User: Which sequence fits this backbone?
């Protein structure tokens, strides 16, 4: 009986192939992963994968260049990823542009060490007016300001009336200056621009600071001996500044620890003079 069953099954299979009811090979099945069941093998439907997006609708046809057929989600993924990347990059740039500035360095308010040496007319500065003041400057030609902190001497403005002024700044050395005084009279200052070529200063010198520590016996008559004062001279930037405080160790108004931050930070004031065509800010 079994041989007859096998022969009959083979006959029916051959007849189905000839009649086109089933394909000659599995790889030739029409739409093998479609949702339409195969009439001969209904179980083929079990192998149909779920459509994208958990939809029960059949997959869309391949995309075309026509706007009436937008690309499928799978085809659009690379471009979507590109747009997302660009958006993130733009967002990063936006965050950088809008990022708050770095917090300022905390102010060093340590007391200035005691003055060195005894007060001397050669190391005494003063501020009487915008045309009558004195600055500590190098005493030797070409000497750097930072090197002169130990042996600097006072030079008065050309029109100064102070009797102790034995050294005078050259004419044209100060190109513009401004005087500012605190409302409570706790300090007075002169800020402005200079021309190092009118003096013996080195025009390439980045500058340095003078205070009650350097040079020996330095003082400002506004506050007296041991009172706070700071002076910066920056030949390479054509700039100078001096502020004298009335109190000893006034690290709020005359901070001696900002010597490397330049005039604009140590002694905020006027460094632009548009009416004279002079600027050193």
Assistant:
């Amino acid at each position: 009986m079994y041989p007859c069953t096998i022969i009959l099954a083979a006959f029916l299979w051959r007849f189905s192939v000839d009649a086109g009811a089933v394909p000659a090979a599995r790889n030739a099945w029409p739409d093998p992963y479609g949702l339409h069941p195969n009439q001969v093998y209904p179980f083929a439907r079990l192998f149909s994968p779920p459509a994208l997006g958990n939809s029960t609708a059949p997959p869309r046809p391949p995309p075309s260049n026509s706007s009436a057929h937008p690309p499928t989600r799978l085809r659009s993924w690379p471009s979507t990823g590109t747009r997302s990347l660009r958006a993130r990059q733009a967002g990063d740039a936006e965050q950088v542009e809008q990022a708050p500035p770095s917090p300022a360095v905390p102010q060093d308010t340590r007391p200035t060490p005691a003055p060195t040496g005894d007060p001397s007319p050669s190391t005494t500065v003063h501020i009487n007016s915008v045309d009558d003041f004195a600055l500590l400057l190098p005493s030797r030609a070409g000497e750097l300001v930072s090197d002169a902190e130990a042996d600097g001497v006072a030079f008065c403005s050309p029109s100064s009336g102070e009797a102790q002024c034995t050294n005078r700044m050259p004419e044209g050395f100060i190109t513009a200056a401004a005087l500012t005084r605190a409302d409570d009279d706790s300090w007075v200052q002169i800020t402005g621009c200079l021309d190092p070529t009118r003096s013996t200063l080195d025009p390439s010198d980045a500058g340095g600071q003078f205070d009650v520590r350097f040079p020996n016996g330095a003082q400002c008559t506004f506050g007296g001996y041991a009172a706070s004062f700071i002076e910066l001279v920056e030949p390479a930037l054509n700039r100078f500044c001096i502020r004298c405080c009335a109190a000893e160790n006034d690290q709020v108004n005359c901070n001696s620890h900002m010597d490397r931050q330049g005039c604009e930070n140590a002694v905020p004031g006027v460094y632009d003079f548009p009416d004279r065509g002079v600027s050193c800010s």
